[in-house]
Structure formats: structure tokens, C-alpha cells
């Protein structure tokens, strides 16, 4: 059985749209409806006319993706996409032919295939080699039988085939580094996670207090300029380090426990539901939700100012990588 990876935009930001609308999609808006194209050559010619700034490599990559999406993906094939906010792969089956959907809720992805999503699979459960193989620069590529078997919890040969390595294409070093850092964060205990968040806040110039384990009433960390909470801003932090998204009830409980003048930060490495995000948006005082992607950005922004305690929690090394031409 064939299986395909279809990425949901840069950083997987459309993964929730893919899931809620039961579809996968690709961009290349200037092409118009794809039904009229019969070959890769026709697609490439149209791309070159639509955007003269595209390089030959970009045109070759684009026409290959589009042709595969139109002609090679078939009803009954398996499909996956990655949601980096909740760190899960969405796994499903292709159940429809190609559609050109101009009124899509995701207008960047008007070229679509209908999907029946079957289950989620945590990235933490994948083998290291499978994680790396899925860190390709390609938007659309076929997933080999070994990785497919892991994602569907089926028996498989542990040997990685040459075809799987070649198919995934060039590895996206930046993406692999990002996910490796999130893997290291995921391996922290709940207590260590609280201290990591406190360390980030200290690097931002706050003094912090991590509350003792127990009934903290939504106050895992208290941060303020003076360390006592007398000076504004007084930030109250709730940290949930677990799998599964935080829903609206948890956010309402957090908001209900806040006092006048407090600002809220709710950290969830499992992400948040849309309803939880709406609750935070409607709050009558400043509150910020931080998922694993936001946490990764905070680590990058503040790592240089981490104190020794925080560096020991999350040991990282800065790597300098040469860029060629206009890359990066």
C-alpha cells in the first residue's frame, strides 16, 4: 500500500485545517485547475510563464509535486501530515479524487484531495531514523514501508531500504534541528519543564519563583521584575507538560483564578484546541498561550542569556553552517 507525506505549509501551520476539513492540499495557485494538464512538461511550462523568477530547480520540484498530487496519488492510498504544535502525525486514507476548491477554508491550498483521518501518532514514539527520514525538504513525497508500518503499528523489517532514503530527498537540517530540540524538551519531567520555563523568563529579565509541587491553583511559576510580585508586570504561569491538547475548560479555570493586575502565561507542550484559543482571546486581561512551537522560538530567542541551571536542563550547541548562493 502506498503512503504519502503532504506537508501542511511552512511549519505545518495548516495541519489543523487539513484535519478539520478532512483533506490535504498543495499550493501553486497560478496553475489554475490541474485537470487540463497531462504531463510534467505542461505543468513546468505553465509555472515558468506564471513566475519568471523561478529557478530551473524550483520548476522541476514544483511540476513533480503537482503531477504526483494529480496523477500518482490514488484513492485508497495512505497519507500523513505533521502537526508540530501537538507533535503528532495525522494518519489517514485518501478517499477522493483531485478537487479544485476555490472556496476552500485554506485558500493557499486550493488543490485538494479528500482524506478520512484515522488516528494520530506521536512523534515521540517513532524511531530516530524514521524521524530523520520524515525531515525532508520536500512538500510531497512517498513514505516507505518501514516508516509506514511504524505509523500504523504494523509488523515490519527493521532494515531501512535504500529506496526510502532516496525517496525522502534532501534532509531539511533546520527542521531536523528544531524537532530534535523539541524531542529533548519532551523528555524533561514536569518539574524540569517548570524550571525550563522559569529559566526562559529569567533570561528575559524577570525574577521567578517556582511553586512547590501540589495544589498551586494555576500558579506553577510567578515572575516579576522584583521577584516579589510588587512591580508590574506580575506574570502567573501554568505549565502542562503532557500529551494531548488543553481544552477550553482548563483555560477557563486558569482565567478564573487570576487576580487584578496579573497577566497569564499558559504553557502546554501538547498544544491547545481551537476552543481553548478562543477562550484566551476573549479574556479581559492579557493572557498568552505557549505551545511547543512557541516554546522552541523562546528557546532560540533567549538561549544566549540562559543561566547555568537552565543550560544544564537543555544542553544545546550553536552550529555554524555555510550557505551557498541565495539559500537561507
Strand content: 15-25%
Pattern of helices and strands: EHEHHEEEEHEHHHHEEEHEHEHH
Q: Specify the biggest β-sheet.
A: 7 strands, mixed
Instruction: Output the radius of gyration.
Output: 22 Å
Word description of this protein:
- With 328 residues, the chain is α+β, with helices and mostly antiparallel strands.
- Helix content is 35%, strand content 20%.
- It has twelve helices and twelve strands.
- Strands 1, 2, 3, 4, 5, 6 and 7 form a seven-stranded mixed β-sheet that branches. Strands 8-9-10-11-12 form a five-stranded mixed β-sheet, with helices on both faces.
- Helix 9 links the parallel strand 10 (234-240) and strand 11.
- The longest helix is centred in the first third of the chain and has 17 residues, at 56-72.
- The radius of gyration is 22 Å and the shape is elongated.
- The two termini are 36 Å apart.
Describe the structure in brief.
With 328 residues, the chain is an alpha+beta fold. It has twelve helices and twelve strands.
Question: Characteristics of this structure?
Answer:
single chain, 328 residues, alpha+beta, seven-stranded mixed β-sheet
Question: Which SSEs are present, and which pair or pack?
Answer:
Layout: E1 3-6, H1 15-20, E2 23-26, H2 40-50, H3 56-72, E3 78-83, E4 88-94, E5 99-100, E6 111-122, H4 128-133, E7 140-142, H5 145-151, H6 162-167, H7 173-186, H8 190-203, E8 207-210, E9 221-224, E10 234-240, H9 248-256, E11 262-268, H10 274-281, E12 287-290, H11 292-302, H12 308-313
Parallel strand pairs: 1-3, 10-11, 11-12
Antiparallel strand pairs: 1-7, 2-6, 3-4, 4-6, 5-6, 8-9, 9-10
Amino acid at each position: 500500500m502506498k503512503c504519502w507525506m503532504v506537508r501542511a505549509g511552512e511549519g505545518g501551520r495548516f495541519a489543523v485545517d487539513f484535519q478539520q476539513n478532512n483533506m490535504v492540499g498543495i499550493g501553486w495557485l497560478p496553475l489554475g485547475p490541474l485537470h487540463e494538464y497531462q504531463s510534467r512538461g505542461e505543468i513546468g511550462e505553465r509555472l515558468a510563464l506564471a513566475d519568471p523568477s523561478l529557478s530551473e530547480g524550483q520548476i522541476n520540484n514544483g511540476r513533480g509535486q503537482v503531477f504526483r498530487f494529480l496523477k500518482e496519488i490514488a484513492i485508497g492510498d495512505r497519507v500523513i501530515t505533521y502537526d508540530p504544535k501537538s507533535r503528532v502525525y495525522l494518519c489517514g486514507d485518501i478517499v477522493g479524487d483531485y478537487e479544485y476548491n476555490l472556496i476552500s477554508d485554506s485558500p493557499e491550498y486550493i488543490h485538494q484531495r479528500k482524506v478520512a483521518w484515522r488516528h494520530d501518532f506521536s512523534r515521540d514514539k517513532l524511531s530516530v531514523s524514521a524521524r530523520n527520514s520524515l525531515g525532508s525538504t520536500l512538500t510531497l513525497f512517498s513514505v516507505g514501508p518501514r516508516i509506514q508500518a511504524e505509523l500504523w503499528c504494523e509488523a515490519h523489517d527493521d532494515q531501512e531500504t535504500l529506496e526510502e532514503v532516496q525517496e525522502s530527498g534532501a534532509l531539511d537540517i533546520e527542521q531536523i534541528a528544531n524537532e530534535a530540540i523539541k524531542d529533548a524538551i519532551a523528555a524533561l519531567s514536569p518539574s524540569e519543564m517548570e524550571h525550563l520555563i522559569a529559566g526562559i523568563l529569567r533570561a528575559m529579565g524577570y525574577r521567578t519563583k517556582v511553586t512547590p509541587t501540589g495544589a498551586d491553583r494555576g500558579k506553577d511559576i510567578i515572575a516579576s521584575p522584583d521577584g516579589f510580585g510588587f512591580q508590574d508586570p506580575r506574570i502567573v504561569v501554568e505549565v502542562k507538560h503532557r500529551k494531548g491538547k488543553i481544552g477550553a475548560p482548563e483555560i477557563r479555570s486558569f482565567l478564573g483564578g487570576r487576580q487584578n493586575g496579573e497577566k497569564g502565561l499558559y504553557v502546554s507542550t501538547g498544544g491547545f484546541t481551537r476552543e481553548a484559543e478562543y477562550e484566551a482571546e476573549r479574556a479581559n486581561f492579557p493572557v498568552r498561550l505557549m505551545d511547543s512551537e512557541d516554546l522552541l522560538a523562546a528557546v532560540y530567542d533567549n538561549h544566549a542569556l540562559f543561566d547555568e541551571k537552565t543550560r544544564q536542563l537543555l544542553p544545546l550547541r550553536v552550529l555554524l553552517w555555510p550557505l551557498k548562493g541565495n539559500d537561507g
